[in-house]
Amino acid sequence: MRRLIAPLLAALALSACAATPTLYQAAAGPRAVGFTDTRIETDRYRITFQGGPGAPAEQVADMALLRAADLAIEQGYDWFRVTDRYTRTDRPGGGSTLSVGAGSGSFGRHSAFGLGLGTSFDLGGGPAFSQTLEILLGKGQAPRDTDVYVAREVRQMVAPRV
Question: pTM for this one?
Answer without folding.
Answer: 0.70
